[in-house]
Amino acid sequence: MSEKIRSFIAFDLENDSVVNRIAAAQKMIMQTNADVKLVEPKNIHITVRFLGDISPDMVEKVYAAMKNIKFTPFNIQLTGLGVFPTINYPRVVWAGITDGAQQLTSIFEQLEPQIHDLGFAPDPNGFTPHLTIARVRSGANKQRLVDLVQRQEHYDFGNIRASCLRLKRSQLSPKGPAYSTLKEYCP
Predict the structure, then answer these.
(1) Active site includes 45?
(2) List 45, 49, 168, 183, catalytic entry
(3) Is 116 an annotated catalytic residue?
(4) What is the pLDDT of residues 61-77, one digit of tens each?
(5) How many CB atoms lie under 10 A from the CB of residue 84?
(6) From CA 165, how far away is CA 161, in angstroms rounded?
(7) Which sequence spans correspond to the domains of the chain?
(8) Which of 45, 112, 146, 149 reaches 20 to 30 Å from 33, CA-CA?
(9) What pLDDT, in 10s, does the model give residues 155-182?
């Protein structure tokens, strides 16, 4: 039986200033005493499509699909905190994407039928451009968290340049996930 590779397609954050602003927002989140698990700043990325477990031979097929995506490098402005699924039931705290959201959606829409042809089911959640920065574990101090999110809806994280789409491997461990790049497409 061949090894399975837990994988996703994403843009990495390659701007230390943005990473530092995310870490500052995470510090504010922790000060609410909400029951959250922060995403390590070095692991934060913009997921275009989660693939799940794939076989090693699927890596090249997914990469070929990625190379069919038409885009030129573009800027992404990261602005504001928000939550999924709703403000009344926050499970994920995210940093929003303003400029660049249309380009990201276009990339997702180009990619989706190609990976469907490879046997992947359609993404049941569709695509909402964002960066996950924390996961909510329970409702403890939920209102304080919600108040912070609402106060920081215009928080300026800065911007990044999206130039390389990457097929990433996610290795889970008790210490948290470790990500590595399997393939990189830089048109």
Answers:
(1) yes
(2) 45
(3) no
(4) 999 999 999 999 999 99
(5) 17
(6) 11
(7) 7-172
(8) 45
(9) 999 999 999 999 999 998 888 889 999 9
